[in-house]
Write a structure and sequence with these properties.
- With about 325 residues, this protein is α/β, with parallel strands linked by helices.
- Helices cover about 45% and strands about 15% of the residues.
- Strand 1, helix 1 and strand 2 form a beta-alpha-beta unit.
- The protein is globular.
- It starts with a strand and ends with a helix.
């Protein structure tokens, strides 16, 4: 199977590519290697696969119509896993137009190219942030998800709606996967767990926004890859599916577990809550269990141990 992964050099994308190579698929990676965080980190994520010839690398921005047309014409993908995006809530508030361009216009371009080139299945990486401040817990795919509270969340919901339009009008088979707070080895440096570990090892206080009672459904990256893998083997006409751990953990609890794993005590700098951050995320994964056979297997404690092992092994290159 020829599978194109956009954003394939990033945190989640590189793990997806690992799995596709293991499966024996013919894999291509599109990545712009932007400077949101160090491009050298992303290059290291996939360099072994590229060097071995297991993965074709196309450097380019999904906003570039000529480059993306060249990618599709050259590789002729049968399936597309679309992970490339502007990510994170806070920077989307500062630059909403850039988020709209990449996450909406870029997604529409890939959908159009997929239709024009006979792609059989399109997987879109959405986000738990689309649920906003819903008081209904756990979050279900049947919830309205019509009141996002950040530009990032709004663009992810818009991406889902674009996917639905291309399915209805052009017959493209689409699965939208709503991912819940993914963590693990290769996690982006701006994300909380990675930031906490870095500051703790540097002897600096970690920055806690709010009183620590906000809760997240932390999901280990291997469980997310399991969901992507199963989705590729079970194409649907159009579905939205949650991928989470289905267990909520407070920020204070997360810090405590991370202290236990690292053997270090965290000094905490208390800061006001940030706009755009939701109070709680909690995935109803009954649909994923039913349609994908999805079973999250990695509890937070074990996942943090794996992250910490990776961080210690790669600390020198991560901090350069």
């Amino acid at each position: 199977m020829r599978i194109l992964v956009t954003g394939g050099a990033g945190f989640i994308g590189s793990h997806v590519i690992d799995r596709l190579v293991e499966r024996g698929d013919e894999v291509a990676c599109v990545d712009a290697f932007t400077d949101f965080y160090s491009p050298s980190i992303k290059r290291r994520n996939i360099e072994a696969h590229v060097a071995s010839g297991a993965v074709r690398l196309f450097e380019g921005d999904i906003l570039s119509a000529p480059r993306m047309a060249e990618v599709f014409e050259s590789f002729r993908p049968e399936k597309v896993v679309h992970l490339a995006a502007r990510v994170a809530v806070e920077p989307s508030i500062a630059d909403p137009l850039a988020y709209a361009e990449v996450n909406c216009t870029g997604t529409a371009r890939l959908l159009q190219l997929s239709v024009e080139n006979g792609v059989r299945q399109f997987l879109f990486a959405s986000s738990s942030s689309v649920y906003g401040e819903s008081s209904k817990l756990p979050f279900s795919e049947d919830d309205a998800a019509d009141r996002p509270i950040s530009p990032y969340a709004a663009t992810k919901r818009a991406g889902e709606m674009l996917c639905h339009a291309f399915h209805r009008i052009r017959g493209l088979a689409v699965t939208c996967l709503r991912l819940f707070t993914v963590y693990g080895p290769r996690q982006r440096p701006d994300m909380a767990i990675h930031t906490f570990a870095r500051r703790m090892t540097q002897g600096k206080p970690i920055r806690r926004f709010g009183d620590g009672t906000t809760r997240r459904d932390y999901t280990y990256v291997a469980d997310i890859v399991q969901g992507v893998d199963s989705s590729l083997d079970r194409p649907f006409d159009y579905e939205i599916i949650n991928l989470g751990e289905s267990r909520t953990v407070s920020l204070n609890e997360l810090i405590e577990v991370l202290e236990n794993v690292t053997g270090m005590k965290a000094a905490v700098e208390e800061l006001p809550e940030r706009p755009g951050d939701v109070r709680e995320t909690f995935a109803d994964i009954s649909k994923a269990r039913r349609l994908l056979g999805y079973v999250p297997r990695v509890p937070l404690e074990h996942g943090l141990e794996e992250f910490w092992r990776w961080y210690r092994e790669n600390r020198k290159t991560l901090e350069t």
